[in-house]
């Protein structure tokens, strides 16, 4: 048994059960290179962890979006090899946003079940403030694409004000980037008909989102490294 902060050590049967797939599916994905190999423990038993769970969840979401196995393989090959389980969870949240409508109406009990943990009134209030859920006549309108990420943010040691400020900053820059890219694409497809434009948009969206997300993650790591370096330099000798 592990706490939320510990790395789980799972057998292939436990991994499959947690991910909601069969052991055969896990083995199939492994042979196709979609999952990294497990760590080998005593008695040559394979041990799996959070990275494997996160990657299975991402594969499931890509399938939900209608991607073929070959397309999923191409998508995963393009990801940086050093992505953590948290990075993969962010990718999954972004992928789920490709769906034209990800809002669902559910009861408090169903919301708790989908969150995978108990939600107190304060937790629900924070999810509402983050615009992940919204009260709706005794039920909740839930952005299913953001729910998993929103639940993870409940444990982040930041004030709600800081999270909302960060969200506003991200929205501002994301909208600016989307506007600039749309203007660029308009210039490229000005002479094409509407069907061509729609097809190009469908193919470009996942590529652009992946490029933006990867670039942002790398930039954020560089900023954090510089922050830690400055903090050490300013610390006691």
Number of separate structural domains = 3
Q: Report the strand count.
A: 5
For the record, the CATH architecture of the largest domain stands as Orthogonal Bundle
Determine the strand fraction and express it as a percent band.
5-15%
Q: Considering DSSP H and I runs of 4 or more, what fraction of the residues is helical? A: 55-70%
Description:
It is a single chain. By secondary structure, the protein is mainly alpha-helical. The chain has three domains: 1-83, Multidrug-efflux Transporter Regulator, Chain: A, Domain 2; 101-157; 159-237. The chain has ten helices and five strands. The protein has helices at 12-19, 23-31, 50-64, 69-77, 85-96, 108-115, 121-129, 144-153, 160-188, 194-234; strands spanning 39-40, 46-47, 103-106, 133-136, 139-143. A three-stranded antiparallel beta sheet has the order 3-5-4. Helix 3 runs parallel beside helix 5 (85-96) and helix 5 packs antiparallel against helix 10. The chain is globular. The protein starts with 11 loop residues before the first helix and ends with a helix. The model is unreliable at 1-5 (pLDDT under 50).
Explain briefly what this protein structure is.
With 237 residues, the chain is mainly alpha-helical. The chain has helices at residues 12-19, 23-31, 50-64, 69-77, 85-96, 108-115, 121-129, 144-153, 160-188, 194-234; strands at residues 39-40, 46-47, 103-106, 133-136, 139-143.
List keywords for this structure.
237 residues; mainly alpha; 3 domains; three-stranded antiparallel sheet; two-stranded antiparallel sheet; 63% helix
